[in-house]
Amino acid sequence: MTVTGVLLSTFWLSLIIGARYLLIAGAVWWAVWGRASGVGTRLNRERPSRRLMLHEIRFSLLSTPIYAFPTAIALEAWKAGGTMIYVDPMAYPLWWLPVSFLLLLIIQDTHYYWTHRLLHDRRFFLWAHAAHHRARDPSPFASFAFDPAEAALTAWLLPLLAFVMPLNIWMLAVLLTVMTATAVMNHCGWEMWPQNWVRGRVGSQLITATHHSRHHTHMKTNFGLYFRFWDRLC
């Protein structure tokens, strides 16, 4: 692993992460705001303004190299055989694939919940989390609109885990897809899931757009990323 390799990987990963964000957020924005009618139940009181979306895009793109850098370190270390990432699904028992996926969701959700609670402390909010709460009614482009400090606090978790637990590279790809889709859907201003599912036995345990929209309007609840476990416990 070399400094040049890490910097080159950071550059290319920044382009990939930024392009993925723009494509997915843009597609969801078109689906819920660009058509005559949205998808599901409208949550936002107001249509996202062009000025707001430009603000969200700017902070999201500023965050991309911050997320790309630790990922680049893990990638270059993997190339040199220095991580626990593996390609062959048969390298470990097959049951480890769903178990490791669930473990990552739980670890990531726990880290995000407590980091998120910390960032809402009045001592940190204005310089570390205010960019994400620019508006009570966010757009899909708010999904990764973080202050640099917040991006730095959350960017290192998954790359670090690649050094301490066996992770299949294709399972990681699925996790990143789920993470991106969840973040974009939860900020889109519409609840895409059916209301009977959101309020049902399973949906009521998960953070969906309904729950995260309330977080943006009240900022006192629903701090989790995927689950409502910590909110209920605390």
Describe the 3D structure:
This protein is mainly alpha-helical and 234 residues long. It is built from ten helices and four strands. It has helices spanning 3-34, 50-79, 96-119, 125-128, 148-155, 157-161, 169-186, 195-198, 209-218, 229-233, and strands at residues 41-42, 85-86, 167-168, 190-191. A two-stranded antiparallel sheet has the order 1-4. Strands 2-3 form a two-stranded parallel ribbon. Helix 1 (3-34) crosses helix 7 (169-186) and helix 2 runs parallel beside helix 5 (148-155). The longest helix has 32 residues, at 3-34. The radius of gyration is 18 Å and the shape is globular.
Provide a quick synopsis of the model.
The chain is mainly α. It contains ten helices and four strands.
**Major sheet characteristics:** 2 strands, antiparallel
Number of strands: 4
Tell me which oligomeric state these chains represent: single chain
- Beta-sheet strand percentage? under 5%
